[in-house]
Design a protein that fits this description.
single chain, alpha/beta, Glycerol-3-phosphate (1)-acyltransferase, seven-stranded mixed β-sheet, two-stranded antiparallel sheet, 9 strands, disordered N terminus
């Protein structure tokens, strides 16, 4: 071939590099008009790649979970002989994982945490809206550990403990599954405890309208009353734009109600702006009923949504908010 983009071979016929490559492939494969097939293939890839990507990105979170588990297993093996002499066997591993997740939140979502001053010095029940994944809670927990050296346990659905390899992760981070007595006990030990009353149903079937799906649940309110602790409402801006589900398809809702497992497909992993806002605490009042406290808490979480979330949520807008500045609250 000669220099430039003038010819492929010496001769009377001049061809561009692309034409030349197509000619060579036709000669090599024996397929005529191969250029048309290649153009069609490139078009299919161009159209399908974004669609495939939005279902692949959620896997990054799953990979991070298993990296976390691997770190714990390595740490446990390395320190088995020192366990008898350690006051806090998992302290180093917890520090490592908090740093890992906080770094991911900062880089991928520009994660911010506002209103930390609203957390009590002692025990308290943090009540939050559940996104399609609990990734925002993980970022909150990691940031709280890194900046405040505080730990917040969380109540999770029973199916989480049945995920392969997850038991060690749940044990280290104090994830509990209830019952009410275990939650009260955690709070009476002076710890923070978090719960999303909407649970898996809210995660799967709420949408970009950020509808709270708590039904008539008031068990969390009774826990706060029995432990005599305040409730702290919390909400993460754009949490529905980072990950979404196909929960609007009726068959998935029917299937979930029958088997009570999160079989609804998830997509997203978009690097949208995430900001977690911690609202003012709802103090313990001995004369308030669980029904009244639950309603007051839902209203507080709804107020955070109304204040900090544009409805309906929009993925492109949430992406653009990565480039906007906002006055820091703390």
């Amino acid at each position: 071939m000669t220099g430039g983009n003038e010819s492929c071979t010496a001769g009377p016929v001049s061809m561009s590099y692309l034409t030349c490559l197509t000619y060579i492939l036709e000669e090599w494969t024996g397929v005529e008009h191969i250029g048309d097939y290649l153009s069609y293939a490139f078009y299919i890839v161009w159209v399908l790649f974004p669609l495939v990507l939005v279902f692949v990105l959620p896997g990054v979170i799953v990979v991070l979970f298993y990296i976390s588990i691997l770190v714990l297993l390595i740490y446990k093996r390395k320190n088995e002989l020192k366990e008898a002499y350690s006051q806090d066997f998992w302290a180093g591993a917890g520090e490592t994982l908090a740093t890992l997740w906080d770094g991911h939140g900062r880089i991928w979502h520009g994660y911010e945490l506002h209103g930390v001053k609203n957390l009590p010095k002692g025990p308290g029940l943090v009540v939050f809206y559940h996104g399609a994944t609990p990734v925002d809670y993980i970022y909150f927990m990691a940031r709280l550990h890194v900046t405040q050296r505080r730990h917040c346990s969380v109540v999770a659905d029973h199916f989480v403990s049945r995920l392969p390899g997850f038991k060690i992760l749940l044990d280290v981070f104090g994830v509990i599954h209830g019952p009410k007595e275990a939650c009260v006990s955690t709070l009476k030990k002076g710890r923070l405890l978090a719960i999303a009353p909407g649970g898996v149903r809210e995660a799967l079937f709420s949408d970009e309208m950020y509808t709270i799906l708590w039904s008539n649940r008031k068990g969390f309110a009774q826990v706060a009353i029995d432990a005599k602790v305040p409730i702290i409402p919390m909400f993460t801006q754009n949490v529905r734009e980072g990950f979404r589900t196909l929960g609007g398809i009726k068959i998935f809702r029917i299937l979930y109600e029958r088997i009570r497992l999160p079989v609804v497909p998830l997509y997203g992993g978009f690097p949208v702006k995430l900001r977690t806002f911690i609202g003012e605490p709802i103090p313990y009042e001995p004369n308030m009923t669980a029904e009244e406290l639950a309603a007051k808490t839902q209203a507080a979480v709804q107020a955070l949504i109304d204040k900090h979330q544009k409805i309906p949520g929009n993925i492109f807008r949430a992406l653009m908010e990565r480039f906007q500045t906002q006055k820091k609250e703390d």
